[in-house]
């Protein structure tokens, strides 16, 4: 909680150096605390279950929600030895389970409220590159689920729990017009050779999306607390940039400063969107910073800038824009604009 002086001018207490000296900042410790993420995931799943129970289309008896996470190929080039960017989990999967590893599945059994993670069983030749695998117990404890099972045992786990109807995610994103589709290979997972290749469960890919999408709209108390801390770090990063930006710098250096601060003080590996570091007339380009206009202009002393940047912290996006003169003082014309 801020002190009275911080409430009036919180930026006065913001870090002024990029290097975060030990001990780690309270923001970093909170945003990367395993207990915080475990309790956050458990609260979110409990809230979703309440919403699912009110739905007329999700059957509780024998009903199971099955989500497929992002895959190891989502962020790779043509081979598996180079990544376009560090892996980023699919948003719906991250929302319910908080696990940021590829090729996983997650299930919530609607009748019992239990949750199960399914993780890949990696071959030994991978250990040399990725390190020894985590134990199943590690995933269960860290992410607060009821149980963790290898993906290859998914079908057996479903049968043991008398799964009758599997709900997968498919629906229209009304903002983009694109389809959200996280549909596992149901034939591979649930078809029986001894039953003429028929599915051992019913499959519904329509009922889940409206319930889960609506659940993400209404944030829990822990989510709100977490998002406030995310916004605090992004605010600090903007203030750090304002303190250190100078004429003669390139816009890309501004972007780099911002990203470095979000990593140092928040542990962010991703930005919520492409950084917009627009100076001079570039400020009139709404989504400046894209590949064709890649934040490459050199700032001058007479510039007014528009910096629209936000860190992403474990799936939660921030979005803050600042506009100010590089000189530190608005001219009459700049103030009018």
Describe the overall structure.
There is one protein chain. A hairpin with a 2-residue loop joins strand 12 and strand 13. The two termini are 35 Å apart. Helix 10 crosses helix 11. The protein is elongated and about 80 Å long. The model has no long low-confidence stretch (mean pLDDT 91). A six-stranded mixed sheet has the order 4-3-2-1-5-8. The chain is an alpha+beta fold and 337 residues long. It is built from twelve helices and 14 strands. The protein has helices at 4-8, 26-31, 34-54, 91-97, 127-130, 136-143, 154-160, 186-190, 208-217, 221-244, 251-266, 332-336, and strands at 63-68, 105-109, 115-119, 147-150, 165-167, 169-172, 179-182, 202-204, 270-271, 276-279, 304-309, 311-313, 316-317, 320-325. It is 35% helix and 17% strand.
Give the secondary structure arrangement, pairings included:
Blueprint: H1 4-8, H2 26-31, H3 34-54, E1 63-68, H4 91-97, E2 105-109, E3 115-119, H5 127-130, H6 136-143, E4 147-150, H7 154-160, E5 165-167, E6 169-172, E7 179-182, H8 186-190, E8 202-204, H9 208-217, H10 221-244, H11 251-266, E9 270-271, E10 276-279, E11 304-309, E12 311-313, E13 316-317, E14 320-325, H12 332-336
Parallel strand pairs: 1-5, 3-4, 5-8
Antiparallel strand pairs: 1-2, 2-3, 6-7, 9-12, 10-11, 11-14, 12-13
Helix pairs in contact: 10-11
């Amino acid at each position: 909680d801020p002190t009275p002086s911080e409430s009036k001018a919180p930026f006065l207490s913001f870090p002024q150096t990029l290097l975060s000296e030990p001990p780690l900042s309270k923001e970093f410790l909170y945003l990367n605390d395993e207990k915080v993420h475990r309790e956050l995931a458990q609260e979110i799943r409990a809230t979703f279950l309440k919403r699912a129970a009110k739905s007329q289309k999700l059957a509780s008896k024998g009903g199971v929600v099955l989500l497929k996470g992002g895959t190891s190929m989502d962020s790779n080039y043509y081979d598996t030895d180079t990544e376009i960017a560090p892996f980023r989990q699919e948003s719906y999967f991250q929302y319910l389970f908080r696990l940021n590893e590829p090729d996983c599945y997650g299930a919530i059994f609607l009748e019992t409220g239990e949750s199960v993670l399914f993780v890949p069983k990696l071959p030994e030749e991978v250990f040399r590159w990725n390190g020894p695998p985590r134990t199943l117990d590690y995933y269960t404890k860290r992410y607060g689920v009821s149980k963790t099972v290898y993906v290859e045992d998914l079908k057996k786990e479903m049968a043991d729990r008398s799964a009758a109807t599997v709900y997968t995610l498919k629906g229209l994103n009304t903002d983009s017009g694109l389809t959200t589709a996280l549909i596992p290979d149901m034939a591979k997972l649930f078809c029986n050779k001894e039953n003429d290749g028929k599915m051992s469960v019913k499959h519904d890919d329509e009922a889940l999306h409206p319930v889960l999408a609506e659940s993400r709209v209404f944030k829990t108390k822990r989510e709100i607390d977490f998002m406030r801390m995310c916004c605090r770090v992004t605010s600090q990063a903007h203030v750090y940039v304002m303190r250190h930006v100078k004429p003669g710098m390139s816009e890309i250096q501004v972007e780099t400063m911002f990203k470095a601060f979000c990593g140092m003080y928040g542990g962010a590996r991703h930005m919520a969107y492409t950084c917009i570091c627009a100076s001079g007339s570039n400020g009139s380009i709404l989504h400046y910073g894209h590949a064709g206009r890649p934040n490459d202009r050199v700032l001058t002393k007479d510039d007014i800038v528009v910096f629209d940047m936000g860190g992403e912290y474990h799936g939660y996006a921030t979005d803050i824009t600042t506009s100010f003169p590089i000189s530190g003082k608005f001219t009459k014309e700049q103030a009018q604009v």
